[in-house]
Amino acid sequence: MRNNSIQVLPPISSPQLSVPPRYSSPKFAQVATILILFVVIYPAFQGAEVSPRALIEGAPYMQEVLLEMFPPSTERLPQVLSLLVSTFHMAVAGTIIGILLALPLAILGARKTTPHVLFYQSSRLIVSLARTIPDLVWALFFVVTVGIGPFAGVLTIAVDTLGFCGRFFAEGIEETESNPKEALETLGAGRRAILAIFILPSSAPSFINTALFSLEKAVRSSVVLGLVGAGGIGVELKVAMDTFRYDEACTIILAIFALVIVVEQVSMHARKWMASE
Amino acid sequence: MATQSSTLPVPGPHATAETAHPSEILSPRDNSKTSPILCFQGVTKQFGTQRVLQGVTLSVRPGEVTALLGSNGSGKSTLLRMVPKLMVADSGDVQVFGQSLSSIRRKELRAIRSQVGFIFQKHNLVPRLSALTNTLHGALGRTRSPQAWFHSIAPSRLRQEALACLSQVGLQEHALKEARFLSGGQSQRVAIARALMQRPKLILADEPVASLDPDAGEHVMRLLRTVAKEMGIGLLFSTHHLEHAIGYSDNIVGLVGGKIKFNNPANGVNIDKLRAVYEK
Questions:
Q1: Average pLDDT, stretch B59-72?
Q2: Strand partners, B239
Q3: Which of A59, A89, A160, B73 is 20 to 30 A from A170 (CA-CA)?
Q4: Measuring CA to CA, which residue among B78, B30, B29 is closest to residue B58?
């Protein structure tokens, strides 16, 4: 058997086989890319004052703060839990509003469903604007316009969700198959009918997936919105840190951690269940 | 394929239903006196420098079954897709139900489309909707209201009609099953039920059995011929199966390089003539 297999192979020193070189000389484009990256990366580290020395010098203070954090204080646990629930409510409400706003924008902003190029461009612009401006900037804007409190946070999350879902919902629509759409067109189905009976049902799994991701994202961002006065548990964390109540801050951080983990797990299982359906 | 087809039974004039070849289950009507429901007149089509159709002239009458034979790229699909105006001819004319498609309005096209059943190679059902709802979609061209969108909101008469169409293809038991869980043969039968729901005068089928196993393919072809003959529907289907062309059609049209090489009755057709379509 072994002899047979050797016989069918050409001799090792066969002149017909030219072994490719291990390394090839770098092309000009590769060298240029590396140089450009270096030109960008080095000043970035310089400009951001990245300093290992400062990190080493700060290490004892970090240790001190961490030691003060434990054991976590349970003194204000009921208030913390109540704020945690309010933060979750803020995230859910904001996500739902954002999804409801994102859906029509995605339909207008997908080539397969847009009625006109002007609608397409306008909706893409709105979605890009919502997505590219950071949520803390939106939070500052809403705190100034509607006042301090959870409603500013809800609006911030809604805009952030609109940006996220608007983009991915549109991509979900674009990814739908073209053949059933064509078949429905040959049946004489109008644009509205095709949207209702094919595009939306076919995109639904992708929409739900995106919506669950955006809920996870909203829960995480709703925590920090409080730092600028947009409601939720973040404000409690800021007060605890500012007043050097690190043990209380630790309780809040652990509560946030638990909430984010629970939402992520529920969302992950929901997505898995959907994928298996 | 060629060897197989040389032994194909050619339908005889006195066969019974039990012993009959499929084409004799329902004997062909004399369609020569009825006016055509579909006419291609000198149709040409070019993609870039490639001439796909060159002066094709062809007609289909009510209750007449016509098979289109031709190798890949011979223009079969292009010809079929011109009927619901998914493609437009460069020159020549396509007339459906006596109406020319060249200067047709959107509303008129919609009316024509609603009466032309199109069966695709891969059924093209909406995968997440039930067989019943997919069948119901055949009524979309008849109503602008959402009545035919989903079976749950459809009026009883439409639901009953859709179920009757499903029952005609033997799938009433699977009415509530989502299309994505049906087999290839079952899906194609739902596509036929959907076409029947259109109350069509003409059915076009683009290689309807290409993705099916032989048994399912025979079943689908038999079904298509039966509905065409029973309901007086014109049927134009493309295929690579010589035995299907002979067994299930009244006329066979051979396309070679976008031109009609022959257009003959299926009864007593010369097999070598059919094979010549595939010779390079």
A1: 93
A2: B69
A3: A89
A4: B78
A198–B150 C-beta distance less than 8 A: no
Asked if B111 and B141 touch (Cβ cutoff 8 Å), the reply is: yes
Q: What does the pLDDT average to over A117-129? A: 96
Judging contacts by C-beta atoms under 8 Å, the chain A residues touching residue B144 are 190
Q: Over the stretch A73-110, which tens digit does the pLDDT of each residue have? A: 988 899 999 999 999 999 999 999 999 999 999 999 99
Min Cα–Cα distance to chain A from B132, Å = 13
Nearest residue in B to A187, CA atom: B114
Minimum distance, in Å, between the CA of residue B173 and any CA atom of chain A: 22
Question: Given a cut of 60, is residue A193 above it in pLDDT?
Answer: yes
- Mean pLDDT (chain A, rounded): 89
Structure tokens that stand for A252 in this block = 């809040």
Distance from CA of B92 to the nearest CA of A (A): 22
Closest C-alpha to B127, from A201, A186, A209: A201
Complex-level ipTM beyond the 0.85 threshold: no
Query: Two tokens at A103?
Result: 């859906």
Kindly indicate the confidence band of residue B28, based on its pLDDT and cuts at 50, 70 and 90.
Answer: very low
Set of chain B residues whose Cβ sits within 8 Å of the Cβ of A202: 126-128
Contacts of A126 (CB under 8 A, 6+ apart): A105, A162, A166
CB contact (8 A) between residue A187 and residue B124: no
Q: Where are the alpha helices (DSSP H) in B137-258?
A: 156-168, 184-197, 214-231, 242-248
Question: Which residues from chain B sit within 8 angstroms of residue A180, using beta carbons?
Answer: 124-127
- Whether the per-residue pLDDT at A221 is higher than 70: the answer is yes
Choose among B67, B5, B12: nearest CA to B224: B67
Dihedral angle of Cα B52, B58, B61, B66, to the nearest 10 degrees: -60
So what's the pLDDT on residue A126?
Answer: 96
B49 CB neighbour count, 10 Å cutoff: 5
The proportion of chain A whose per-residue pLDDT surpasses 90, expressed as a percent, equals 57
The contacts of residue A91 (CB under 8 Å, 6+ apart) are A157, A215, A218, A219, A221, A222
A190: chain B residues, CB-CB within 8 Å = 110, 140, 144
Chain B residues within an 8 Å CB radius of A201: 126, 128-129
Nearest Cα neighbor of B142 from A190, A191, A200, A183 is: A190
Interface contacts A/B by beta carbons within 8 Å: 67
Q: Which of B193, B263, B264, B187 is nearest to B224 (CA)?
A: B193
Is A193's CB within 8 Å of B84's CB? no
Name which of B86, B111, B126 is nearest A197 (Cβ-Cβ).
B126
Q: Any residues with CB less than 8 A from the CB of B211 and at least 6 apart, and which? A: B121, B122, B184
Best mutation site among A191, A197, A203, A206 for testing chain B: the one with the most B CBs within 10 Å? A197
Share of chain B above pLDDT 70, in %: 88
